[in-house]
Design a protein that fits this description.
single chain; mainly alpha; 0% strand
Length: 96
């Protein structure tokens, strides 16, 4: 009778130990999953930030191009006015 009792106790202890090990493994797996999820979120955030930076740079580049275009138009207009002034004074006809 005592032998059966000892055997049963050992089985119960072994089962408890096995259950505890399984629970620990589950905890570790959950932690790994959380870590992976966190890394994924961080990566997504970084990608979003990079996209925003690229958009800002593109916007600045477009603005700069617009400014340069406007300056170019302004400069061309000034040049044309200047050349027209020469023409009206007769300088383009060789009378300088």
């Amino acid at each position: 009778m005592e032998k059966k009792c000892c055997v049963k106790e050992k089985e119960v202890e072994a089962n408890q130990k096995e259950e505890e090990e399984e629970e620990e493994e589950e905890k570790k797996e959950k932690e790994k999953e959380k870590e992976k999820e966190k890394e994924k979120e961080e990566k997504e955030e970084e990608e979003e930030e990079e996209e925003e930076e690229e958009e800002e740079e593109e916007e600045k580049e477009k603005e700069k191009e617009k400014e340069e275009e406007m300056m170019g138009k302004h400069t061309r207009e000034k040049l044309m006015d200047f050349l027209e002034g020469f023409h009206y004074k007769g300088w383009t006809e060789g009378n300088h």
